[in-house]
Input
Amino acid sequence: MKLTVNGSAIRCLERSIVTTGMAGAPVQFVFDSAWSAISGRTAVFRCGDVERQMVLDENGGAVIPAEVLHTPGRTLYIGVYGTAASGATWPAPTPFCDCGAVQQGAAVADEAAGITPTLAQQVLLAAQTAQAIAQSVRDDADSGAFDGADGHGLVILGLYATLAALQSAHPTAGQGDVYAVGTAASNVLYVWDGAAWVNLGALAGPQGPQGPAGPNVISSDTSVTLGSGYLLNNGGQLLARGAATSVAQGLVNLVTAGAVYDAIQSARPQAGTITLSATWSGSGPYTQAVTVTGATVTASSRVDVQPGAAALAQLADDGVAALWIENNGGTLTAYALGAAPSATMTVQCTVTEVTA
Output
């Protein structure tokens, strides 16, 4: 039996013969778009003074309860209701639809069809079924059924001057192979995706914190005076030092030897070198204490390394996935991830002062 439901209107589209003693007679509901937000759709079956309810499945199907097919000659009525998101029963409940009289069936004992579960029993059974499915999924997850293969660290296999040189040397490669293209000081990474070399961009660490505001900034409404050979603002703050016979000369001193100049100079990165020995401690990551040659390191310095072509090749051969320097109160420690470099190497570095 098939019924269509349009808003609160219901119509029997395909009527089937139902008989006394019938068990499991199917009924199918077809809903319009007004029911798309309606949950808990439930069919109501009435025949004489007997009424039963059945929760519809996700496809709008149910079976006619055997109890309402008990008395021949009486008309079977079917309606439906549901609950909207607001909690109101809208657009249901529908009126009852006349689905024809119950016909006399072959002699069957009253108990043959069984008892239709109550609405509460149907909801409980659906909840128990959902719980069993959830437990099955959890058991599969605990047993590793959904686990994928482990990934691997980033290993740079070499350095090429241009993409064309890389493509010429390696027209194809293994899935996930990575090479650097450019110079030792400035390069980008390319990975083989199975069909072509894809640009991953430059290998860089996270952006550092913003530096402090420069001292003694002269705004458009700040008056400047010359006091005893020094350039002062209207608050008496020293802007420039050094002998000055005029405000103009004081401004020159401000650019070349004043507080602003000192601040700019102290913020400029310094270039130096770090020698990494072949002796490392630990295992993943590996460590060793290092010092910087050619630059001054303080407790607030950030030290970044820039391996050259030979060093990059050595790191790739050794399987080093990452190399970095950490500063702990002025004491520098080198870290290597994936593997430790097997040979002594000297790498370029930059030292930058960072203020929290």
Notes: Confidence is low (pLDDT under 50) at residues 217-222.
